[in-house]
Amino acid sequence: MNRRLMIVDDEEAIRDSLARHYSLAGYQVETACDGLDALGKMAKIPCRVVVSDIMMPRLDGIGMLRVFRKEYPMTRTIMISGFVSLGNALACMKLGAETCIFKPFEDLSELDRDVEAAFAFHERWETKLLELRGLKGQSG
Amino acid sequence: MLRNVLETWGYQVEECSDGNEAFACLSRVDGPRLALLDWSMPGMDGIQVCQRLRQEHPSLKYYLILVTGRSEDTDVQTALRSGGDDFVSKPWSELVLQARIEVGFRTIAMHRTIDEYASRMQALADSRAAQLVHSDRLALLGVLAASVAHEINNPASFLAVNLQTIEDLWPSVEASVAGPVSTLHKSRADSMVQEMPSILREMKDGLARIRQITSELRSFSRTGASCVRSVDAVQALQKAMRMCSVRVKNTIDIRVDLPPSLPGAMADEGKLIQVFANLIMNANDAMEDSAVRRLYIDSIVSPSHCELRFRDTGPGVPADRIDSLFQPFFTTKPVGKGTGLGLHISRGIMEEFGGVLMHDVPAEGGARFTARLPLATGAGS
Question: What's the pTM?
Fold first, then answer.
């Protein structure tokens, strides 16, 4: 099961610390510094779950979500933001983001739980699809 | 003889024997303010005393009564035109003189009351002006809250993530130190050793950034008297840019062409940051609908001044609005956006430093604002 996760943030230290945390937790982590960078990397190595900042240069999180919706409808995206307006939060919701987590995080329990739940969504469907194709044994 | 009469009426009397003595006596800070002046005196006559008193002490409230044997209309005219308040011809009647002196003291008292009101109104106007400067600053602080939230929340976030990493890995480190451990513990302890330098560096940087923004916020929101001293305008600009960063970083492109530092200029740093932040936010708002949204900032230094110039690529100030640009409550922004006080207050601040804030239309188009500050070294000359 592919547990590839992408972290998108224009703040290097956030990118690096989250990448470290999720690598140690057993995920394969990709990083991108803004929406445009993320789209470029997704085209090469699609990730099932993306954790992304909202306010970023070049292409912000909302613009990126809009593209994801068309091109990668199965990708689950979790937004994180230090300064979130109601308008931004509603836009994220309409564009199908999983949730929006406000910085600063007190600890990572909420984000960990949501990342895990997003992968669980994929795993659930993967199991169902395997069942449908009859590839899974009777024991499943 | 006159002295006796005046003392009977209850007045304190000072006598002078000629014009020069009278002028000196009336020039004293604690000298009398109502005078009975003889027209013809040795040295300086009464008319000259009146003229000189009015010329040299325009702020002192005198009531000058000329006493003379003349009684022609032209004499009265001359006396009143040279600064006399009243005219009494000899021989005078005691009753009339007493009444006229009473009028004099009443007039002096009235002047004092008016002066008092005027100075109270002036103080009120001054304090209102100071409040306006402060409320503009608070309004800007609201705008800059985004940057502050960003500059505190982001470091706080990676501090929290790194703390969590340490917490997660620590048990493996403890176990490894205590004795032989499983491969999982071993590899997690190795990760900790390997990652610790980066973790520490990030945490230190994060704390430094939080400290920086809070100290800048403190100096920016400080109220009270200005502290005008030698300031590096480049540093003030950098602080202003940092405060505006989140609001403008995804909307406009700021191109700064400045030396690493400029010669010290006379300013209050907090207020200078306020001026610069106003100019940056104005440019940001002006270029909202422009295809190219660029703000060029450069400087010019002369022997006595340094100038910071802000040129935007917006639509520029409409020609019919240029004259009212610095007026209070002037704004081209829609209702609810901008108070129309920013430029007015910014110009006031620059003038307080002995500088100016100017607008011109550059050849390239757009609008250009120039903030000129006197250099600290040239300030005394």
Answer: 0.60
